[in-house]
Amino acid sequence: MPTPRDSRPSDAARTDGHTAEAPRESDKAPPETLRSVCVFCGASAGARKEHAEAAAELGSVCARRGIKVVYGAGGVGLMGALSDAALAAGGDVIGVIPRALMEREYGRRDLTELHVVDSMHQRKALMHQLSDAFIALPGGYGTLEELFEITAWAQLGLHRKPVVLLDGGGFFDPLARMLDHARDEGFITAEERLLVRHTGTVEDALRSASRKPPADATTSPVLTPDRT
After folding, report:
1. Helix axes 141-155, 120-130, angle to 10 degrees
2. Could you confirm whether domain 31-222 is CATH 3.40.50.450?
3. How is this protein annotated for GO cellular component (predicted)?
4. What distances in angstroms separate CA 126 from CA 71, 155, 192, one per listed residue?
């Protein structure tokens, strides 16, 4: 069982060089081959079994293909289904969790790597640094907040990593319509709307996660993630 890693910025040597800072130039775009994917998903299982099944399938497929899974370190709900399946298939699973949640026993300790950080914001920044792409499964406020913040970073030109919705049961259909509405009302451009890709299967999600977003969908960097 791995020992949780304290990922405070002052302890950089204890996190294999990963700290919750602005992305380096090499962090901004995914490599040609998808090596790791950050998965945003709920700590609840949801009302329909299809959601947990999709989470488990994603974890299993990533493990079989040698793609590391980076996620919020939870052991229940969709987070549990995802990590259980990935670990059972022999995959590498990296969890990132704030210390306050770890102290309340919300994080699992049997992961390949476990990074314990000081805040929710450091959690998101480190998950960004550890990942080549982002896939969102169904979830609540936390999942949606993570999805929108990482998309906003892409809009600002802080990274060019793919952001993908994995939606086998129509959960994200209303969100996709809302994004279309925001485009039609002039709050995001047509190019910026393309930053969030809507897929219905694990295969499509991973395929989409392997493709960079269009260059004209982002602006020049004006912020760093620790300032957003």
Report:
1. 60
2. yes
3. cytosol
4. 10, 19, 24
